[in-house]
């Protein structure tokens, strides 16, 4: 039988303290963060251990370190506090109209294809909604969705994630393009290039294990094409685009990004997409939210606008 923490006397003050203790790693700093005295914070820490019947933290030379149980409790405390804050926000939005803040996450390609058009429309139709967009890899975004830090995200569920904790809507494939600078020797070829013609140049790719790199390398291997020998590894799209513009390097990137930075006909700025005999697409991404999540009116508006962006493709 599970421990009934509420009947044992668990209070909101315990949740707040656990959340800030994880964030600041010290009782004194946690006390300052929630505006209570250090003796009061020490009392909350002691009460937490009495309520749970298990050690929630240990003292180290650098302050406080949460135990495994303490870490899990602190994560759930943060999530509960966000839900309570969300309830207050929703009540406020309902009383005033569509106000509030919405947090969206996205990997780079869908951010350009769907998030930007949707957010542009939201800014025109609902200027009182405050928007936050986090662009990162899926393995960064998914924990943020689960913890309630993001309302939803355009990304992929990692293989290790518990799919029962999420709702996935509208899967979409992501195409990959190879890009070079205007004036590159390969850019002068008007026809379809054999993929092995690209191997004589440096390639810029994400770190090993990243879905884009894994997909490209797997596709090359299946086609019995050698992997590129000279690879510069970076996780920065900005650095990738800048280096392509200033060198003879080649980069596989999301086609939506390639389109957004395409060079004008005969221009010297932007990027040129190479047409090759090896089409590549990355594993589909989805519009993902936490299973059972209740959106605020503002979040529902943004979610619906992104769904409409999907349907227009």
TrEMBL record:
<keyword id="KW-0804">Transcription</keyword>
<dbReference type="Pfam" id="PF00126">
    <property type="entry name" value="HTH_1"/>
</dbReference>
<dbReference type="GO" id="GO:0005829">
    <property type="term" value="C:cytosol"/>
</dbReference>
<feature type="domain" description="HTH lysR-type">
    <location>
        <begin position="10"/>
        <end position="67"/>
    </location>
</feature>
<protein>
    <submittedName>
        <fullName>LysR family transcriptional regulator</fullName>
    </submittedName>
</protein>
<keyword id="KW-0805">Transcription regulation</keyword>
<comment type="similarity">
    <text>Belongs to the LysR transcriptional regulatory family.</text>
</comment>
<keyword id="KW-0238">DNA-binding</keyword>
<dbReference type="GO" id="GO:0003700">
    <property type="term" value="F:DNA-binding transcription factor activity"/>
</dbReference>
<dbReference type="GO" id="GO:0003677">
    <property type="term" value="F:DNA binding"/>
</dbReference>
<dbReference type="Pfam" id="PF03466">
    <property type="entry name" value="LysR_substrate"/>
</dbReference>
<dbReference type="InterPro" id="IPR050950">
    <property type="entry name" value="HTH-type_LysR_regulators"/>
</dbReference>
<dbReference type="InterPro" id="IPR000847">
    <property type="entry name" value="LysR_HTH_N"/>
</dbReference>
<dbReference type="InterPro" id="IPR005119">
    <property type="entry name" value="LysR_subst-bd"/>
</dbReference>
<dbReference type="InterPro" id="IPR036390">
    <property type="entry name" value="WH_DNA-bd_sf"/>
</dbReference>
<dbReference type="InterPro" id="IPR036388">
    <property type="entry name" value="WH-like_DNA-bd_sf"/>
</dbReference>
């Amino acid at each position: 039988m599970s421990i009934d923490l509420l009947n044992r006397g668990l209070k909101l003050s315990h949740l707040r303290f656990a959340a800030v203790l994880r964030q600041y790693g010290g009782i004194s700093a946690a006390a300052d963060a929630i505006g209570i005295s250090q003796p009061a914070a020490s009392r909350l820490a002691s009460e937490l251990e009495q309520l749970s019947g298990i050690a929630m933290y240990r003292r180290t030379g650098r302050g406080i370190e949460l135990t495994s149980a303490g870490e899990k409790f602190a994560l759930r405390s943060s999530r509960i506090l966000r839900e309570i804050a969300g309830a207050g926000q929703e009540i406020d939005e309902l009383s005033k109209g569509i106000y509030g803040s919405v947090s969206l996450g996205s990997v780079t390609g869908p951010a350009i294809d769907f998030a930007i058009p949707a957010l542009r429309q939201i800014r025109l139709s609902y200027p009182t909604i405050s928007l936050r967009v986090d662009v990162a890899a899926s393995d960064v975004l998914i924990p943020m969705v689960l913890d309630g830090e993001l309302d939803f995200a355009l990304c992929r569920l990692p293989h290790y994630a518990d799919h029962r904790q999420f709702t996935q809507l509208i899967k979409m494939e992501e195409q990959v393009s190879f890009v070079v600078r205007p004036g590159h020797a390969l850019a002068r070829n008007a026809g379809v290039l054999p993929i092995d013609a690209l191997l004589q140049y440096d390639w810029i790719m994400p770190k090993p294990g990243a879905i884009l790199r894994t997909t490209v390398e797997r596709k090359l291997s299946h086609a019995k094409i050698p992997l590129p020998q000279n690879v510069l590894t970076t996780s920065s799209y900005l650095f990738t685009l800048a280096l392509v513009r200033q060198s003879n390097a080649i980069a596989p990137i999301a086609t939506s990004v390639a389109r957004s930075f395409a060079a004008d006909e005969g221009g010297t700025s932007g990027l040129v997409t190479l047409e090759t005999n090896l089409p590549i697409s990355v594993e589909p991404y989805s519009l993902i939210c936490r299973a059972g999540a209740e959106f605020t009116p503002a979040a529902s508006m943004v979610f619906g606008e992104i769904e409409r962006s999907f349907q227009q493709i």
